[in-house]
């Protein structure tokens, strides 16, 4: 049985001051709830506030990006050790917004994922097709390319730490959710690919769905056999909607 994992990707939202309130509300609303793994991924400058805020709770902390080098002249980037120091257990890599706006490629996604693993962070590797790719009938080709290239070189114990996120680009922030059948179809496809790449470990790898997941569609999506959690954008910015989604996974 895979324990479900719901992560809030705050994107470029919530100052440290604002984060403090949001985390306190989430922590209070979750109580000791631990049936679903819950991770908060704030902007870098709010990691400290989140670290303080989640103390004494099972809530995990994730960042939204990580560089593959340990240190050096990489203006604007951040290292895995810096994230670990702020209590991060997870890091999102290859989000479509990074691919779309910041030149992220399958190759850099792979480098970031491997560096995260080497440093003891669990990468949440994002994949997903654009609307044009879906309409052109190339969804599975795109996903296969992103999964194979993004996970190249992973081996052994890496597989147990990996989380994947399927986020159809056309469903992100648009209010257009993939139907549970559309999402399950891609998740099952990813699972088959993982069996080829990771063997038996594939059955333990969590695959999150992301893209307009809300309290009113979460239960249906999270009820699919290969949907093992959610990566939540907009609905993660309010404690009530985020906690409702986390609890829908139980
Ligand atoms: P929305 O939930 O706002 O559609 O964003 C999804 C997402 O991109 C999470 O990483």
Structure report:
With 250 residues, this protein is an alpha/beta fold. It has one domain (5-248): TIM Barrel, CATH 3.20.20. Helices cover 42% and strands 15% of the residues. It is built from 11 helices and 8 strands. It has helices at 16-30, 47-54, 80-85, 96-101, 106-118, 131-135, 139-150, 158-161, 180-198, 215-222, 239-248; strands at 5-9, 37-41, 60-63, 90-93, 122-127, 163-166, 206-210, 229-232. Strands 1-2-3-4-5-6-7-8 form an 8-stranded parallel barrel, surrounded by 6 helices. Strand 2 (37-41), helix 2 (47-54) and strand 3 (60-63) form a beta-alpha-beta unit. Helix 1 crosses helix 11 and helix 7 (139-150) runs parallel beside helix 9. It is globular, with a radius of gyration of 17 Å. The model has no long low-confidence stretch (mean pLDDT 97). Bound molecules: 1,3-dihydroxyacetonephosphate (13P). The site of 1,3-dihydroxyacetonephosphate has 14 residues, from strand 8.
